[in-house]
Amino acid sequence: MADYGYTRRTPNQVDKLEAAGCVKVFADYAATSPDMRLNLMSCLVEMEAGDRLVICEFTEVSRHVGTAREVLEWLDVHGQEFGVLDEPKWTLAEVLAWVRSFP
């Protein structure tokens, strides 16, 4: 089981994810459209069951609920986990239930 980092922000967040122990950090530019986050998709495909996607803030996944739901459901289906450095108490099940509560 390994932690994989993802950010769409600044190099500071890459450093923060590396310091948190992520074996690899993927980054997209903040202005990238949700449909064009190629490095997020690469990260998800590279991860194996039991691995964890780690982000600094929840909005790293997406500011759009539908896109966030798709990413979280991918993790769930593939037996992967999810962690937010600024909110370490959230589990994948809790965040997925919350995101699914939106229409």
UniProtKB/TrEMBL annotation:
Q: Name one Pfam family in it.
A: Resolvase
Domain Resolvase/invertase-type recombinase catalytic, residue spans: 10-87
Q: Which SUPFAM superfamilies match?
A: Resolvase-like
Q: Which domain of life is it from?
A: Bacteria
Entries under InterPro entries matching the protein: Resolv_N, Resolvase-like_N_sf
Can you tell me which residues the record assigns to a coiled coil? none
Q: What is this protein called?
A: Recombinase family protein
Q: Which organism is it from?
A: Kutzneria chonburiensis
